Amino acid sequence: xxxxxxxxxxxxxxxxxxxxxxxxxxxxxxxxxxxxxxxxxxxxxxxxxxxxxxxxxxxxxxxxxxxxxxxxxxxxxxxxxxxxxxxxxxxxxxxxxxxxxxxxxxxxxxxxxxxxxxxxxxxxxxxxxxxxxxxxxxxxxxxxxxxxxxxxxxxxxxxxxxxxxxxxxxxxxxxxxxxxxxxxxxxxxxxxxxxxxxxxxxxxxxxxxxxxxxxxxxxxxxxxxxxxxxxxxxxxxxxxxxxxxxxxxxxxxxxxxxxxxxxx
Length: 264
Ligand code: PGA
What we know:
By secondary structure, the chain is of the alpha/beta class. The protein contains eight helices and eleven strands. The chain has helices at 21-38, 54-67, 93-100, 124-137, 164-167, 179-185, 205-210, 224-232; strands spanning 6-10, 13-18, 44-47, 75-78, 80-83, 112-113, 143-146, 173-176, 199-202, 214-218, 251-256. It has an eight-stranded mixed sheet with strand order 1-2-11-10-7-3-4-6, with helices on both faces. α1 packs across α2. The longest helix is centred in the first third of the chain and has 18 residues, at 21-38. It is globular, with a radius of gyration of 17 Å. 2-phosphoglycolic acid binds at residues 50-52, 147-149.
């Protein structure tokens, strides 16, 4: 893996700080490729969307096209999806995954799972429970890839006032989006927050924290405060990424200098 400028063990996991984002994407792609190879190609991956992993997916596609990395026997489960949303909507995470990764690798369509933003309201709970069962049937997540929201969310597990042990054990479910999340998403919806769906389906904290390894990525100054709170603050339901403290031995943070600037 490209060498980070700095590495340390923190209360929230192993921390790698890179001077620039590009080697960070390469290192993250290497960790995912290694997970697949270690499992003889049969890995189960939890994937993320948003602006953070785009470059990582470009590199993973290159690993497939030039390095012979096969996804034929890989299963993927995405963290979240807006609700309601059509899979053909340019802002759906299903389309994002198709464009950035699934169409560029050899993963069979029935192994590349994204929560379905078109299920009827009455079926949402059953769909979310079934999504968790699919993951279990696939042997559980070998690696969960995460970004972090400016408000410290992971997936769409937003800040709450729940007791931490409850907030860290939430099931996959429908969630109203936090105002900070809606404001950040507005850029994808023509700059108009009113066009951002009010809800999303999200993998719960319980399933995320159950993954056998967790790789969390953050770049840029807008993430610095959330990163510092998550790594150096107390475990708090106000900062869902702080729940990573509870599973620190299996967590790897890869961040750039800008995202590290609020760390003490
Ligand atoms: P971003 O989102 O990658 O678009 O910054 C990360 C997140 O909100 O989890």
